Amino acid sequence: MPVAEPDRSVFVSDRHKPLEGKKVVVKYGGSAIVMPELKKDFAKKVVFLQQIGANPVVVHGGGPQISRQMKRLGKKARFVDGLRVTDHDTMVIVQHVLDDINKEIVKLICSFGGVAVGLAGRKGNLLWAKPCEPDLERTGEVKDVNAALLKKLINDSVIPVISSVGIGEDGGCYNINADMAAGEIAAAIKSDLLVFLTDVPGILDNNGRAFSTLTCMQVEELVERGVIGGGMLPKVRAALVGLRKGVVSVNICLGTQPATLFCKKFLATGTIGTRIILDGNTN
Fold first, then answer.
1. Is the pTM of this model over 0.85?
2. Structural domain of 245
3. How far is CA 126 from CA 119, 121, 144, 189, 204, in A?
4. 3-state secondary structure of 140
5. Within a domain: residue 283?
6. Of residues 36 and 247, which shows the higher confidence score?
7. Which of 21, 24, 86, 230 could form a Cys-Cys staple with 139, CB 3.0–4.6 A?
């Protein structure tokens, strides 16, 4: 399928392209990964990012689908600090669900003229995992990332689509929280931008308003005060890890409406939702 010319009207001018040449890691999940119209819009926007000169990398989870499949099979989902407790049977479900999601994302990206490759983190030594502390059975953390493989794909103008299951030293698979996986992957390839698409417009204050910009220190203070909790915890932890390992900027933003998925403001400024930066970084 021929690649369509990008609509350059989204830019302030042709000279104003802050994403050109930038590595952009997008964590894709939540409701945006479930609703058919959002799936198509997401795939189209990822292809558009590449057309305007950015180098997108997609990291996806599948929490809603995994929980739904577990319920169908009579298993109850359990979470600790936003992380899914994964026993052996749940691990099998996670792999099957994420593999199906991965294939669908790749197919959609290709249908809009992009070139994408699906990568299960457990294959090709892409994501090395270690058990979580405290022990959450087959729930793991990223120990290492095969950055060389991802950089080669990026240099070849291929969009990597990565599912967050890693391989452990014991040869077994580990379910890695997709937010944390995205943070480590972004850090490994020294991404310019890490974007988390969520079901809320950013990090919210006690009145439900989204913060525009936060430093790492401010984020840690909000966690200590309990303003940030639940499913947002893995996202901000991943953001802090990424920033402190070389990621330039992190955005946490709403992904449940087509108009906000890489909207005009994002394409023109590289910023949307809540932006998290290193302490003292004014860029």
1. yes
2. 18-277
3. 8, 5, 8, 12, 34
4. strand
5. no
6. 247
7. 86
Is 220 exposed, middle or buried (CB count within 10 Å of its CB: 0-12, 13-18, 19+)?
middle
Give the span between the Cα atoms of 174 and 182, in whole angstroms: 15
Residue 69 lies in a domain: yes
Kindly state whether residue 5 falls inside one of the protein's structural domains.
Answer: no
Q: How far apart are CA 269 and CA 211, in angstroms?
A: 17
Q: What percent of the chain lies above the pLDDT cut of 70? A: 89
Cα separation, 253 vs 262, in Å, equals 10
Q: How far is the C-alpha of 271 from the C-alpha of 121, rounded, in Å? A: 28
Q: Phi-psi region for residue 208, left (φ > 0), alpha (ψ -120 to 50) or beta?
A: left
Specify whether the backbone of 226 is left (phi greater than 0), alpha (psi in -120 to 50) or beta: left
The structural domain count of the chain equals 1
Judge whether 24 lies within some domain. Answer: yes
Cβ within 8 Å of residue 256, ≥6 positions away: 30, 31, 32, 35, 38, 199
Helix (H, G, I), strand (E, B) or coil at 176: strand
Contacts with 96 (C-beta within 8 Å, 6 or more apart), sequence order? 69
Contact 179, 196 (CB under 8 A): yes
pLDDT band at 4 (very low <50, low <70, confident <90, very high): very low
Higher-pLDDT residue of 68, 37: 68
Distance CA 240, CA 107 (A): 32
**pLDDT tens sequence across 43-55:** 998 998 899 899 9
Q: Is the dihedral of CA 59, 64, 67, 70 positive or negative?
A: negative
The pLDDT of 59-74, averaged and rounded, is 94
